[in-house]
Every structure is written in structure tokens, then in C-alpha cells.
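Quick one: examine the sequence and C-alpha cells given here and explain what the C-alpha cells say about the fold. Here goes:
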Amino acid sequence: MNPESISQSAADLATTARTLADQAAALANQTTQLAAAGAHEGPGFFVFGLTVFMLACFVGYYVVWRVTPALHSPLMAVTNAVSSVIIVGAMIAASPETFNFSTVMGFLAVILASVNIFGGFIVTQRMLAMFKKKPQPAKS
């Protein structure tokens, strides 16, 4: 290959790369415009969130329903740990100074997670108390 053909091939590649870069920029601009227009349309996010919530409810119900009774105490301990993580996120959501929907939902999540944590501890205490040996009456 001679140097002139190599330089011509490099120039052709540079032109093709510039054309592709311009097309990619135009495509990114169109995508941004479509995303901005679609963000204000319809109940897409609400329906998606509601669908995920309903599926999580069904999966959670069937997973917990199939747990053997011997594993209920460890399961309660795990749900208490998950609720403690949830309450941290809920406090962050409820903390903004502005009063809006996310603040209300964060406050509601703090209340519900607190009830879940304290109720879980009470149930776990009662279940563990069932396994303690009862004192035997003294024989006379």
C-alpha cells in the first residue's frame, strides 16, 4: 500500500465517523425530546408502580405461606431487619422541608414500618417464650 491510499482511506473513515457522530447526536436529541414529552403524558409510571406493588404482594404472600412453622421466628427476625432498612429510607423521604406527596408517603411509611418492627418484636418474644422450659413444681 502506498501512503496516498492510506491517507485517503483515513480521510474516508474520518468523514464516515463524523457523519455517524452527527447522526448519533440527532438521535440523542430526538430521544431527549420524546422522553420530555412522554414524561407528562398518561398514567404510565403510576400503572407500572401499581403493577410492581401488586406482584410483590402476591409473591410475598405465597412465599410466606409456604414457610414451615419451625422457620417463623427466623422469618420474623429477617422482616424486622428489612423494616429497619425501610424506616431509614422512609425518614429520608419524610425529611424535606417542602410539604408534598413524597413527604406524606414517607411519614406514612415511617409509621407503618414502626408498627411492623414493634409488632414483630412482640410476636418473636411470644414465640421464643413458647420454647422456654416451664418451672417444675417442687415435689414434697
